[in-house]
């Protein structure tokens, strides 16, 4: 296994029903999710999932309701047991863990942030933040300073004595994030962690996560049904439909090169200028020749370049990272990248021809 891969999911299946092993034979023979339910009375949760989650990255798993994304994340800490397959954490088979090893995994290696906060109402904010440490057997005095530090980092300094009902929804979710950080686990599982929040608060939480990730480099597995959120957060994006991986990879590449009509429809309403980055459309070169209208950063959005260009499609920009040239951005290439991929019907017709 690649040394940079933290978690490796291999040939993972989950079937719900009275005889999942028997139903698995039908799935492997080609029976799909609707047919499995209609003909055999079983629900196909996950089908042959293969995903590598890299150390220090944010991996976003997304899809519509019923796609299997929450089922998948709950397999990582074995809140759900698979029908078949394997999950390797640092090369060790998680599915082989006994109860003692599994408790250690959940207490020390993986923390979880839930959609609906999951705070204990009779415990203070400080006590909720230090809960993972308390479960490990640490006394209040041992985790208090660390919990206060993380509350301060998520913008809740001075709120440790409050109770959850005294906080807004956004503040409660910040407590959930602080609790995950205070556990000092290298892996954070976030199951639709921001989806219950108002749009402005949700944006604030996304920005907070990115700021913390820049410093901490945790391995984050983030579940979302929102494509804008996924494109903003993901280093690696996995898109599910009916329990299957339809496409996965670097988000910019998926946006520019969708490989399935479902993905084409999924990304059709995205503001491409706001999401696409210079690095995705530039021409690589360590010694580009001018003249140039100026310098841009590879992580600048195309929207920001359009703003500084004044809409002039004839100019070129030198792309630099840390002062060193790495490529050229032609405005004509930028404009081409803004043209959406054909809709699913057009794509299917093109293939038929």
Terminus-to-terminus distance: 42 Å
Number of helices: 17
**Tally of strands:** 14
Helix content: 40-55%
The SS-based structural class is alpha/beta
Shape: globular
With strands numbered from the N-terminus, the spatial order across the biggest sheet is 6-7-8-3-9-10
The radius of gyration computed from the alpha-carbon positions, rounded to a whole number of angstroms, is 23 Å
- Mean pLDDT, all residues: 90
Q: Would you identify the regions where 5 or more consecutive residues have pLDDT less than 50?
A: 343-353
Q: Which sheet architecture does the biggest sheet show?
A: 6 strands, mixed
Strand content: 15-25%
Structure description:
- This protein has 17 helices and 14 strands.
- It has helices at residues 20-28, 33-40, 69-76, 99-109, 125-129, 131-135, 140-153, 169-182, 199-216, 227-233, 251-256, 261-266, 272-275, 278-281, 302-309, 331-337, 344-352; strands spanning 5-16, 43-54, 58-62, 84-89, 92-93, 110-113, 187-191, 219-224, 236-241, 244-249, 283-284, 295-296, 316-321, 324-330.
- The strands form three sheets. Strands 6-7-8-3-9-10 form a six-stranded mixed β-sheet, sandwiched between helices.
- Helix 7 packs across helix 8 (169-182).
- Mean pLDDT is 90; it is low at 343-353.
């Amino acid at each position: 296994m690649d040394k940079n891969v933290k978690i490796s999911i291999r040939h993972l299946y989950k079937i719900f029903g009275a005889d999942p092993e028997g139903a698995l034979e039908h799935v492997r023979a080609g029976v799909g999710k609707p047919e499995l339910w209609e003909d055999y009375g079983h629900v196909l949760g996950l089908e042959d999932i293969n995903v590598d989650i890299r150390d220090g990255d944010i991996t976003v798993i997304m899809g519509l309701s019923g796609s299997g994304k929450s089922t998948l994340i709950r397999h990582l800490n074995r809140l759900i047991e698979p029908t078949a397959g394997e999950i390797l954490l640092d090369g060790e088979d998680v599915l082989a863990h006994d109860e003692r090893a599994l408790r250690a995994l959940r207490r020390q290696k993986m923390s979880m942030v839930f959609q609906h906060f999951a705070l204990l109402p009779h415990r203070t904010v400080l006590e909720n933040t230090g809960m993972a440490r308390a479960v490990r057997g640490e006394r209040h005095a041992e985790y208090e300073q660390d919990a206060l530090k993380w509350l301060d980092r998520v913008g809740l300094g001075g709120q440790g004595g409050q109770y959850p009902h005294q906080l807004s929804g956004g503040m409660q979710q910040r407590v959930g994030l602080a609790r995950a950080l205070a556990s000092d686990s290298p892996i954070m599982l976030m199951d639709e962690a921001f989806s219950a929040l108002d749009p402005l608060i949700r944006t604030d939480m996304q920005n907070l996560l990115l700021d913390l990730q820049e410093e901490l480099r945790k391995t984050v597995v983030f579940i979302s049904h929102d494509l804008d959120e996924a494109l903003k957060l993901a280093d690696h994006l996995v898109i599910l439909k009916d329990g299957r991986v339809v496409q996965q990879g670097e988000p910019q590449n998926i946006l520019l090169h969708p490989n399935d009509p479902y993905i084409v429809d999924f990304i059709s309403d995205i503001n491409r200028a706001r999401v696409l980055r210079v690095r995705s459309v530039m021409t690589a070169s360590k010694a580009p020749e001018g003249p140039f209208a100026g310098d841009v950063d590879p992580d600048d959005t195309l929207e920001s370049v359009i703003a500084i260009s004044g809409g002039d499609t004839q100019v070129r920009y030198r792309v630099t990272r840390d002062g060193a040239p790495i490529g050229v951005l032609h405005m004509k290439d930028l404009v081409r990248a803004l043209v959406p991929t054909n809709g699913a019907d057009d794509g299917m017709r093109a293939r038929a021809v």
